[in-house]
Design a protein that fits this description.
The chain has 339 residues and is α/β, with parallel strands linked by helices. 40% of the residues lie in helices and 14% in strands. Helix 7 links the parallel strand 6 and strand 7 (179-181). The longest helix has 20 residues, at 246-265. Residues 1-31 form the signal peptide.
């Protein structure tokens, strides 16, 4: 029997990462000219790295006639991000479409949380180091699958979507019992090291690419095969922040749009920015190889998010049915078109 994953948590830094994700203390609401942003781990947050590196919010704030103070926080998991947003600890939440739809549904008619923009289109891989796991049907009680947040993260929702396709809608949560909440860096280290009950990881780039360097790790599921090219990660905010801080909000949207154009048009510079801001140890050439493909598109316009929204309503995971992507995205000048 493999060792419990808990017994090796210290060796991969789990405790510190999880603790860091819970230490965002609530603060009171503030006036125009301040913005607090929460991001998570991976290349999917590269646009925020560019915004931070080039001080784009501050730049566009000055164009609006205000000086903007920007505060950056890193959390792990959509549940922690959603809690931080609702407690007033942050103003802009960075998380997957899964957490967005959960919080949109629960705040419908109240705080009215909606998405501001997409962070781009990226394939996510469900990985395993168990040679007996070829498809999702091969996971058993002996396996544990790491996700950022159990039942809420977009990885968890992708897994449920895949389970519904495999066994029908009534069995959509069939694999939830095998999932555990682990930050991407720690899950990657554990999957590569092996020897624990953690034999699966629903990952994101560049962690999935780093794990696949190990010959014992293989792809079980590619989300592009599941849904087609899609925007798995988004930024969202409360209606109150958007209404009370129009200049700050506009500066943020303009900054993000500029960052998307920069990253999409100069992926080499984008790779340098990611390494510089995150202090990642990833090899530059390998990182550039990952993002410099047609599969990776940096854009604020959401793509193919609605199938997941419709699925979550169909299986009862959310109570409010969105008629289209426009129901859970603020309708600003940007993004103009989406899905």
């Amino acid at each position: 029997m493999p060792k419990s994953f808990k017994t090796v948590a210290a060796s991969v830094g789990l405790g510190l990462s999880l603790l860091a994700g819970s230490l965002v203390a609530p603060t009171v609401a503030h006036a125009e000219g301040e913005i607090r942003i929460a991001e998570q781990f991976g290349i999917v947050y590269l646009l925020l790295n560019v915004v931070r590196d080039q001080n784009l919010i501050e730049k566009h704030g000055k164009e609006e006639g205000i000086d903007i103070k920007v505060d950056w926080t890193q959390l792990s998991g959509g549940a922690a991000v959603n809690d931080a947003l609702l407690s007033g600890s942050i103003d802009i939440a960075g998380a997957g479409v899964g957490p967005l739809l959960t919080i949109w549904d629960r705040t419908h008619g109240k705080q009215n949380v909606k998405a501001v923009a997409s962070l781009g289109n990226f394939p996510y891989y469900l990985l395993s180091n168990n040679p007996n796991v070829k498809t999702i049907a091969d996971f058993s009680d002996k396996d544990r699958i790491a996700v950022p947040a159990v039942g809420v993260s977009v990885q968890s929702r992708f897994l449920q979507y895949a389970a519904a396709k495999q066994w029908g809608d009534k069995e959509f949560n069939r694999l939830d019992k095998y999932t555990i909440a682990v930050p991407h860096p720690d899950a990657t280290a554990a999957l590569i090291a092996g020897g624990t009950e953690l034999s699966g990881h629903f990952s994101n780039p560049p962690f999935q690419d780093q794990a696949l360097k190990n010959p014992n790790v293989h792809v079980v599921l590619n989300t592009y095969d599941l849904l087609g090219p899609n925007s798995p990660t988004v930024l969202f905010a409360t209606e109150k922040f958007r209404n009370d801080n129009p200049k700050t909000y506009k500066a943020f949207v303009e900054a993000l749009t500029e960052a998307a154009e920069f990253a999409q048009n100069d992926k080499a510079a984008a790779a340098d920015t990611y390494i510089r801001v995150t202090k990642s140890k990833v090899d530059r050439d390998e990182l550039l190889k990952i993002i410099d493909t047609p599969e990776y598109e940096f854009s604020v316009t959401p793509k193919n998010t609605y199938p997941l929204a419709e699925f979550l309503y169909r299986v009862g995971a959310i109570k409010n049915k969105p008629d289209s992507w426009k129901d859970y995205f603020f309708q600003d000048a940007k993004p103009l078109q989406g899905s």
